[in-house]
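Consider the following input, taken from an annotated entry for Carboxypeptidase-like regulatory domain-containing protein (Flavobacterium jumunjinense).
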Amino acid sequence: MKKKFLINFLFILFASTLQGQNNEETKYSFSFENKTIKECFIEIENKTQNRFYFNEKWTDLNKKINLSFNEVNLETILNDIIKDTNLNFFKDDNKFIITQSNFIYTDINTNLIVKDSVINENKTSPLFFEKIIDNQDTESESITIIGKQDGVNHKKTHVLDGIIIDTKTNNPISGVVINVTNRNKKTETNIDGYFKIELPDGLNVIEIISMSYKKINQKIILKKDATLNYQLTENITLLNEVVVQKEKNKEVKTVASGVTTFNVEKAKNVPLVLGERDIIKLALSLPGIKAASEGSSGINVRGGKDDQNLFLLDNATIYNPSHFFGFFSSVNPYLVNEVNIYKGHIPAEFGGRIASVFEINSKEGNYEKFKGEGGIGPVTSNITFTTPIVKGKSTLIAGARATYSKWILKQIDNENLQKSDANFYDIYLKYKHKINENNAIETSAYYSKDNFNISSDSLYSYSNSAFSLNWKHNFNKKNISNFQLINSNYAFGIDYVADNLKSFNYDFNINETKFIFKNVYFYNEKHKFSYGLNTTLYQLNPGELKPIDENSLLIYRKINDEKGLESALFINDEYSLNKKLSFNLGLRYSSFLAMGPSTQTIYRNGAPTTSGNIEEIRTYKNNEAIKNYNGLEYRFGSRYMFNETFSVKLAYTTNYQYLHKLSSNTTQSPTDTWKLADLNIKPAFGQQISLGFFKSLKDDLYQISLEGYYKKTENFLDFKVGSDLLLSESIERDAIQGKGKAYGVEFLIKKSEGRLNGWIGYTYSRSLIQLNDNTPDKVVNNGNYFASNFDKPHDFNTILNYKFTKRYSASFNFTYQTGRPVTYPVGTYTYGNAQYTLYSDRNKFRIPDYYRVDIGINIEGNHKIKKPYHSFWNISVYNLLGRNNPHSIFFVTENGQIKAYKTSIFSYPIPTITYNFKF
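Applying the prediction step yields:
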């Protein structure tokens, strides 16, 4: 018995030892140099007893590798070989079954079933597919598998992102819709052509849709986060009519209210004064945006003053946005791609003004070939061209515009203007270089110059300039950043040359240098964050008078320079709670530091700012802190969609403004100067609440909006009657910091397609101010609210364009506005043997109402593709009815009688013809 037990024990021991030897994995050594994966499999087969089974058509098998292994088990070798591919493998004894993307499980357990249930529910295609990628196949039925399934850490959802560009130009395409038809999900590309969408594991049917390009259909199976870049080919199919439009019902779906976006190309069919398309004049036809009068360079948005608007050209501040007394915008329209006007909800990244932001984005240059366009008109001519520097990587775009306008002044019903002269020019350059997929640098330069004289002895001039350097960097798929350094400058001067003893030069200058950092973080489908900082250094020369002759009767005078630093941190979250309710939540913390060198007058606490109440005159050294102001700004927007075609939007916005414009005129003047907040001048503060209803009809053919708003303003700057602001060393003694309130209702109906298209807009609004300072001479209208200079309750605009054929169309404008307020003399009185005029309360009366009709005929050249250039003619008649609309009314006392005089800009029809061309 003992012998039998011993034999059995030895047998078990031997068997277990033998089994352990068999279980020990065999080690292998291989060296693969520039070999394909398929060749590696074949070499392993030849040197081992293992066999591989795979589909030879799989493209991953042709990938070449360089790897070496020394005494490594076979599974480790295979994992390294297929590491950066979509291949997986399954081992069965000495057989290796290669799969594409999918993972073969040897057993089924509850956890795996839960993880992969989404695949089963959506009925994904079978295990093996042929991978065919053809981005130009508009009706592709192939299936693309991206990534490979992980049997341990398998995710239910994956992020798909990428960039969509034009095949010919390599330029990014914005507004392209990425529609996942079987998931009821969609997104669209941003201005850089970038998109990002989160999709579930398994089959996704994708449509890439743009009206100007061929559609792409693609079926993909996602197994991991992936990037897919698409190149779209222009759709050259001949159609009766091709209309380029944004995503359907976009105005209904967007969260922000009080925002208008338009493409400048659409302005070519609008008849405007002197025949040139103009972004500012086009904006004035929209509800809530007005000018104090015809020929005024200032713009008033929802009851705000003209200095409360921020004009940005590629983020560079433009202080005077107009040429030629307000008839032309200072930015060449041929260089402008898109304009975004924020008059309600202002994004948290913008600050420094309390009424509106005009964001002007320039065109992108062409990376493949030389192109250009231009125009020749009765007053101006311009030329713009773009050319690649290094094909596919860098491009230059340049433009210039100049005027020959003296003859038009002879036609204006104003004797002084008829004896005047005026001219202007502007130039722009932008260079962009794509370093790689994640980095691009861009630099631009802009300069404009105006010269005019109202009399023969005085020459006025003003200029805008801007320079920017921008670095765009993608840290990863979720983080896109911009770093921008910008310098802007505005200057004006007066050269008076008559009597040498009184001749002089006068100069004013404001310079700002700012740094902007902005990062966009795509957290997930519900949250899109943007955050960053910007800081701006202001340097002002408030005024300098220099006598020309050394024997001059005048003396040299210079107002002390001003310096200030404005900084801000901001964060914004675009949050979608569900398909119906979305929010745009923003916070901006802004701070302003007034700095030396400076001399500040300190008045007795609570006493009026008069010379008799001076307590101290304090001198500050260079960069020494004078006064700090700061505050938190709220940017809240929300949208609730009742259905796909109807939504309601609510917004609340607050803003600080640390810079004021000094003007004693009714309308903006090129000689207006600017003033920073300091010890005695406080920053302005504004807050606005708005509610809007948005509706689209007939498959988005018509868009209707109705918006109401109420806003309050504190500490805006006004002045006593008769104040002399030039070379004033004590602005605070003439300044009145008042309060304002404005409210209104805006209605707009647009038709974007068809033979007849355009819009009709109506605004009822009021703009009221209160000037009630602590001294009698700074109290206006007994301290009660009264109408501002730009209060025009009724404003009605119609812009229509009718296309007879592809080449011929007619345009029609009609404008009606309530006459602006004016102060009238109501009598005379005698004091000290002198007779004086007694005036009414300020702005108690109004000038006559304004209305105007314009028409235009538009003739396009034939649409042959291979023509060397394409042309466009515009024949317009401005003020067709010859309406003698008053520009201003003034009063003169002659022989003891008060006589009223009216001036007009154009009191009869002004015909113009403009020729535009592209090549």
